[in-house]
C-alpha cells in the first residue's frame, strides 16, 4: 500500500504534484514487488471508502481475478512478513 504523508480523504483531492508523486513512488514499489514476488503484473487499486485517507493498493497478480477483495488473503507468520519486507526493500 502507498500512503502519502499529506492526509486527504480522497485521492483526487490531492494536488497534481502530490498525485504525480504518489504514482511515481507506486511505480518504484511495483518494480520492487515484481522482483520479489512471482506474478505477471502488479495491479493497482484505489477504493477510498474503507479509511478516510488517500492510499493505493499494489497487488501482485497473474490473472484479473487476483484483484477481487473477496479472495482469501495470503497468511504469513510475523517472521515471513519481516523477511518479505526486507526482500522488497532490497529490490527498491
- Class by helix and strand content? alpha+beta
* Overall morphology: globular
Biggest sheet statistics: 2 strands, antiparallel
Q: What is the helix tally?
A: 2
* Strand order, sheet with most strands: 1-2
Percent of residues in beta strands: 5-15%
- End-to-end CA span: 14 Å
Helix and strand pattern: HEEH
Mean pLDDT over the residues: 93
Descriptive account of the structure:
The protein is α+β, with helices and mostly antiparallel strands. The protein contains two helices and two strands. Strands 1-2 form a two-stranded antiparallel sheet. Helix 1 crosses helix 2 (78-90).
How would the blueprint of this fold be written?
Layout: H1 16-36, E1 41-45, E2 57-61, H2 78-90
Antiparallel strand pairs: 1-2
Helix pairs in contact: 1-2
Keywords, please?
92 residues, alpha+beta, two-stranded antiparallel ribbon, 2 helices
Quick rundown:
Helix content is 37%, strand content 11%. It contains two helices and two strands; from the N terminus they run αββα.
